[in-house]
Give the backbone structure.
Amino acid sequence: MNALESTSTRPYLIRALYDWCTDNGLTPYVAVLVDDSVQVPREYVKNGEIVLNISFDATSSLKLGNEFIEFKARFAGTAREIMVPVSRVIAIYARENGQGMAFPVPVSSAGGEEPAARPSPLSSVPAAGNHAEEDPKVVQLVSPEGSADAPDPSADPPRPPSGPRPALKRIK
């Protein structure tokens, strides 16, 4: 098997960072570039992207597969089935400290709007020693802290109305 025939490293890295987050008591979030293949609540999509909390407490039936990330979650009290192709995940990180990994933005083959043409939390990093050309395979997660042109922190996904939160008791 050569490099062209091997499977993508993305699902393995996502699982590894998910495990790292949970082992360290952190909350794993994934940033997803939304298109027709992504099954998420569209009302929470902003600028063609959605950030999902994939922690044990926020999901049920979580499956981090090689092709899809699947789980059930509640949005504003309504249960939803979520299915995200692994190829559409553009970052996985810990909510508490922002540590994680960003992935190359998938190239749109449908001839529609290019993902790189609109604002994104990911930006290309110039190739080492050559600032004229950018390497499309290397991306950097731009941190909202310490950046003058950072997005508004209030631009997070909408929160459900406040009030008493329903709780489930697990009985074994």
Remarks:
- The radius of gyration is 17 Å.
- Residues 111-135, 146-151 have pLDDT under 50 and may be disordered.
